[in-house]
């Protein structure tokens, strides 16, 4: 036998899908929100964004180098985490804060649990929650053009009545984290992700839908559409629903599970916002649901094709 | 009416343009012909000849052993040169009869056709099919007479001919439907004669418009045969998916097509039935697509079983470049060969010689749980989880997550962005669990 060809198991052809391609699409989807954030909040937002990305990529390569693993920064997942973290920070934070955030996100939430795909919670969100609890003051200082500007949800919580218009809230001309204010930009990116089949519609649609319904039922203002508008457009719901709750590693893999994830996030968000101490519940809602994902997946194993009664015809 | 289909699945590039317009070329073998005694699922055959014997074309040289087995016939006349172990396209070594071709093609006088097949009983027809050594020619090589003998309590109302040919590169079924149209119809009519209450359906993917048109014309005026246009989607030709597409019936887990009143036959198999009944000829030839980027002049050949792969590759102009992989069968489910010195057997649907670019070997990366495998699995399984349980040898979880239902179509591995060997690990674990069960 002279010839020796490669022998491996079928299939012998593979699609062009790749992790890099998926992550690149996520970066593209986040660009409108990033650009708007920089436009709205100014150069500081840009610098914070760069620091976040650098911190995440740096932390990942350093950790993998030190632990003698393959350095995987080329897959863009650290870039995505950095970008998401930046979009979840106010632009007023001191420059060391994003570095702390990036290190926490990559090393503690992602790498210590086994790296890409093994993290049980979204790294950016985990880091955000950590920063929010540890540096509450720094993390909730909202400013627009140097003037302090609370988020509409915060104002509602404090009983302030002089709220920005719902339209401004929709387009994003309000206080908030760098990337969370513009509903338009975030939804645009979300639709892009769904169209490119990077995420599916279940989690965002059930999440946002649940918040809409519960705001009406539990908000105490009935069918006050302005109030509902603030609830839906005002906080981190859009960025959470499209980009954080859909995180592959920390969301269910089954279709039914994804519906449950959306519902659960929606219920928790509304409950925290309406009954809790924080004005904003998205981060904690998603993080709590992340913990249930293995359980949800286990109880939602789909019906296999052919699982029918034998005598059925 | 839109094309019929099943749920989920993938759309790999067809790569059929190499050969889909190439008429079937008859290939005359040059060297010795090799007949492995294992050309079907089931027990290997026992040689009926010995070294030095003269054999005639059509002569039975291998006797079926046991129930699930099928006899083997010589496709040439000549002298038995040796009975020895040879390399089989599946990678194993099996006993084979090597026959030196005398170039005369002297036929045995027992090949008698029956024009009056309608006078024959079902049992007589089954006996002809059994003795002709006909097996499923799509690649699975299950003896056809068994498939055509469903348990008596199952009422069969559909005889399906599988012309989906959903594997990329493969065009042999396509060419048969264009060039041997009437034989397909006749073959199906013979089967329908055995199942008088059943309807015949020929399912064809809609990327073969010309085949659909040709077959539709051929069945015009025949009440009990129709053509089903199927959406081009992989694995449309998988038995369970094909049945669902056409009837919306689900073959129950662990069950057979007969449980939902269906029998599915491959196109070439139906032609073989036609030849066996009307012309008295056992299964001695088949259509083989020789294709892939490393082949100079890709072709569809009509080949005598026993012909060497090497000869066929040479007949297709040889290599343009050294192939990276040679596959017997389609790229999704076929077997990779390490040598081309193997004979064509009854299940050899194609020989693919793929270049490095066509069959990139990529490193596995971490599963990112993107769920793409879940969204395309035609069996509605969770390949990512099954892969995890397979790697960790968690057989109980593997079974609990219904891993035994995998049809090994390869779609999950194809789509996986992390290039994980999902199908491979699941297949291996299935085998291990089945072997343990037998103990």
From TrEMBL, chain A:
Root EC class: translocase
Essential cofactor(s): FMN
Entry EC no(s): 7.-.-.-
Domain of life (superkingdom): Bacteria
Locations listed in the record: Cell membrane
Keyword Transport (UniProt): yes
Principal subcellular localisation of the protein: membrane
Membrane-crossing residue ranges in chain numbering: 22-39, 45-63, 70-89, 95-113, 125-142, 170-194, 201-221, 227-245, 257-276, 282-301
Membrane topology per record: Multi-pass membrane protein
Quaternary context: The complex is composed of six subunits: RnfA, RnfB, RnfC, RnfD, RnfE and RnfG.
Family, per entry: Belongs to the NqrB/RnfD family.
NCBIfam families xrefs: rnfD (TIGR01946)
UniProt xrefs under HAMAP family: RsxD_RnfD
UniProt name for this protein: Ion-translocating oxidoreductase complex subunit D
TrEMBL record, chain B:
Subunit structure: The complex is composed of six subunits: RnfA, RnfB, RnfC, RnfD, RnfE and RnfG.
Membrane-topology annotation of the record: Peripheral membrane protein
PROSITE patterns: 4FE4S_FER_1, 4FE4S_FER_2
Family per similarity comment: Belongs to the 4Fe4S bacterial-type ferredoxin family. RnfC subfamily.
One Pfam family of this chain: SLBB
Chain sites annotated for binding [4Fe-4S] cluster 1: 367, 370, 373, 416
Any Gene Ontology CC annotation: plasma membrane
Gene3D superfamilies membership: 3.10.20.600, 3.30.70.20, NADH-ubiquinone oxidoreductase 51kDa subunit (3.40.50.11540)
Cofactor(s) needed for function: [4Fe-4S] cluster
Any Gene Ontology biological process: electron transport chain
Annotated SUPFAM superfamilies: alpha-helical ferredoxin, Nqo1 FMN-binding domain-like
Enzyme Commission numbers on file: 7.-.-.-
Entry keywords, A to Z: 4Fe-4S, Cell membrane, Electron transport, Iron, Iron-sulfur, Membrane, Metal-binding, Repeat, Translocase, Transport
UniProt subcellular location: Cell membrane
Predominant location: membrane
Residues binding [4Fe-4S] cluster 2: 377, 406, 409, 412
Protein name, as recorded: Ion-translocating oxidoreductase complex subunit C
Organism field: Vallitalea pronyensis
Function: Part of a membrane-bound complex that couples electron transfer with translocation of ions across the membrane.
Domain 4Fe-4S ferredoxin-type: 358-387, 397-427
Molecular-function annotations in GO: 4 iron, 4 sulfur cluster binding; electron transfer activity; metal ion binding
Cofactor note as given: Binds 2 [4Fe-4S] clusters per subunit.
């Amino acid at each position: 036998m002279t010839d020796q060809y490669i022998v491996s198991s079928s299939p012998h052809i593979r699609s062009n899908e790749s992790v890099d391609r998926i992550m690149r699409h996520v970066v593209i989807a986040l660009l409108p929100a990033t650009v708007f954030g920089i436009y709205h909040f100014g150069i500081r937002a840009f610098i914070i964004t760069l620091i976040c990305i650098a911190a995440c990529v740096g932390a990942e390569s350093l950790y993998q180098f030190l632990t003698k693993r393959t350095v995987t920064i080329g897959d863009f997942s650290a870039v995505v985490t950095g970008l998401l973290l930046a979009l979840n920070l106010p632009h007023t934070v001191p420059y060391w804060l994003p570095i702390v955030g990036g290190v926490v996100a990559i090393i503690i939430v992602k790498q210590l649990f086994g790296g890409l795909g093994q993290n049980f919670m979204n790294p950016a969100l985990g880091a955000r929650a950590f920063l929010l609890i540890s540096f509450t003051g720094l993390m909730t200082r909202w400013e627009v053009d140097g003037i302090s500007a609370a988020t509409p949800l915060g104002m509602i919580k404090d009983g302030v009545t002089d709220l920005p218009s719902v339209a401004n809230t929709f387009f994003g001309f309000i206080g908030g984290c760098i990337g969370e204010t513009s509903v338009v930009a975030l939804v645009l990116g979300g639709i892009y992700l769904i169209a490119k089949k990077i995420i599916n519609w279940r989690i965002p649609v059930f999440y946002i839908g649940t918040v809409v319904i519960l705001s009406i039922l539990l908000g105490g203002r009935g069918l006050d559409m302005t109030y509902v508008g603030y609830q839906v457009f005002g906080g981190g719901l859009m960025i959470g629903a499209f980009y954080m709750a859909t995180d592959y590693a920390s969301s269910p893999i089954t279709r039914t599970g994804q519906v449950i994830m959306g519902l659960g996030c929606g219920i928790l968000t509304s409950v925290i916002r309406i009954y809790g101490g924080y004005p904003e519940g998205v981060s904690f809602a998603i993080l709590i649901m992340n913990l249930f994902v293995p359980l949800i997946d286990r109880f939602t194993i789909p019906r296999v094709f052919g699982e029918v009664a034998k005598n059925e015809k | 009416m839109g094309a019929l289909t099943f749920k989920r699945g993938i759309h790999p590039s067809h790569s059929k343009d190499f050969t889909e317009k190439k008429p079937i070329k008859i290939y005359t073998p040059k060297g010795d012909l090799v007949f492995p005694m294992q050309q079907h699922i089931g027990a290997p055959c026992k040689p009926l000849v010995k070294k030095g014997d003269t054999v005639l074309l059509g002569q039975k040289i291998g006797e079926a052993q046991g129930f699930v087995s099928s006899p083997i016939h010589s496709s040439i006349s000549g002298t038995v040169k040796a009975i020895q172990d040879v390399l089989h396209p599946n990678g194993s070594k099996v006993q084979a009869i090597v026959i030196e071709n005398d170039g005369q093609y002297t036929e045995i006088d027992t090949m008698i056709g029956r024009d009056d097949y309608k006078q024959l009983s079902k049992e007589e027809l089954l006996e002809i099919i059994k003795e002709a050594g006909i097996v499923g020619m799509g690649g699975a090589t299950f003896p056809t007479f068994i498939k055509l003998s469903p348990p008596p309590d199952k009422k069969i109302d559909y005889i399906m001919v599988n012309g989906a040919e959903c594997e990329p590169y493969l065009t042999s079924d396509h060419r048969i439907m264009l060039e041997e149209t009437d034989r397909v119809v006749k073959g199906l009519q013979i089967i329908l004669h055995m199942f008088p209450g059943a309807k015949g359906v020929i399912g064809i993917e809609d990327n073969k418009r010309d085949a659909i048109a040709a077959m539709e014309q051929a069945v015009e005026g025949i009440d009990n045969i129709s053509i089903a246009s199927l959406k081009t989607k992989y694995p449309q030709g998988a038995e369970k998916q094909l049945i669902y597409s056409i009837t919306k019936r689900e073959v129950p887990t662990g069950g057979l097509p007969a449980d939902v009143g269906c029998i599915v036959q491959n196109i070439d198999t139906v032609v073989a039935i036609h030849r066996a009944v009307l012309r008295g000829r056992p299964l001695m030839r088949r259509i083989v697509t020789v294709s892939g980027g490393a082949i100079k002049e890709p072709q569809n050949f009509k080949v005598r079983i026993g012909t060497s792969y090497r000869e066929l590759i040479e007949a297709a102009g040889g290599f343009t470049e050294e192939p990276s992989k040679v596959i017997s069968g389609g790229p999704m489910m076929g077997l990779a060969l390490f040598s081309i010195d193997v004979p064509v057997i009854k299940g050899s649907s194609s020989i693919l010689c793929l270049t490095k670019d066509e069959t990139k070997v990529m490193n596995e990366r971490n599963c990112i749980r993107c769920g793409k495998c879940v969204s395309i699995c035609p069996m509605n399984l969770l390949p990512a989880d099954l892969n995890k349980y397979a790697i960790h040898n968690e057989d109980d979880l593997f079974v609990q997550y219904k891993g035994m239902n995998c049809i090994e179509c390869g779609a999950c591995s194809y789509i996986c962005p992390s290039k994980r060997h999902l199908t491979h690990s699941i297949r291996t674990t299935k085998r291990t669990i089945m072997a343990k069960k037998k103990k």
